[in-house]
């Protein structure tokens, strides 16, 4: 699973945000549906696997828990053929309703302090983040803390892009209005902030140094089937930890490799998509600046427009 609920703070967090924490409590997470323990994995290793949560092998979800059903909906692509709005309205995991970036957690207690009623966990964020801790809320759509689950929902549920969505700083109240594909044949000035997306330039070099990672995109101007002036994202990562840098670089590199492989297999409709929230450069309109790793992600998939 890509997310689990923090037992103390009672909020659902994305596995990839674990690498932001000073301390990861191995016993601090549970599945929101039925409350079984979820163990954080791969959050610090510089390996190929994305950070995730897994249940103990000898434990299973409660019979009435939605966890398996949620995975099946995505796996079987049910939402790619028709609207599944009623399901999305009633499951927290699939289609986030908003984005709220959680500021770094102050490490105060651990799960072993759970019985101690005076132990509190603090987030420097507004109270909106502290949703989903009641039984009623357990069954409703949730807030995401990176754009990834939101982007995944955009790909997975094309018939439900009219579902509500709220992103701080972006105009628009649903998925259709908030997402925007970068222009495929020109360099445009974008006056409104969106979650922009484009496929990754598969044979473009991904340059990086200590301060900057440059991600080449396919959107933009092509002449004679060659990229002439295409958009690129400059990630200012000068203040990031080494692990965080490696993680994003690997993610982009793997997405590029996987998509090249798909092309070889003639599965041309699947692509490596880069989604991001960034600032367009004031002089060079083909450049976008991103500096927060929670606001950029690569996802392999097929985007359809019903
Ligand atoms: Zn469960």
What level of helicity do the residues show?
Answer: 10-25%
Unreliable segments of 5+ consecutive residues: 116-136
- Number-wise, the strands total 16
* Biggest pleated-sheet summary: 5 strands, mixed
Amount of beta strand: 15-25%
| Domain module tally | 2
The backbone outline, from C-alpha atoms, is: globular
Helix and strand string, N-terminal first?
Answer: EEEEEHHEHEHHEEEEEHEEEE
The overall pLDDT average reads: 86
In this entry the ligands are: zinc ion
Strand order of the largest sheet: 10-11-12-15-14
The first-to-last residue Cα distance is 28 Å
Helix-strand category: alpha+beta
Number of helical regions: 6
Radius of gyration: 20 Å
Features:
306 residues, alpha+beta, 24% strand
Please outline the helices and strands:
Layout: E1 3-6, E2 12-14, E3 29-30, E4 38-41, E5 52-55, H1 67-75, H2 85-89, E6 98-99, H3 135-138, E7 143-144, H4 148-156, H5 175-178, E8 179-181, E9 195-199, E10 207-208, E11 212-223, E12 226-236, H6 242-264, E13 271-276, E14 279-280, E15 287-290, E16 296-301
Parallel strand pairs: 6-7, 8-9, 12-15
Antiparallel strand pairs: 1-2, 1-3, 4-5, 9-13, 10-11, 11-12, 13-16, 14-15
Bound molecules: zinc ion.
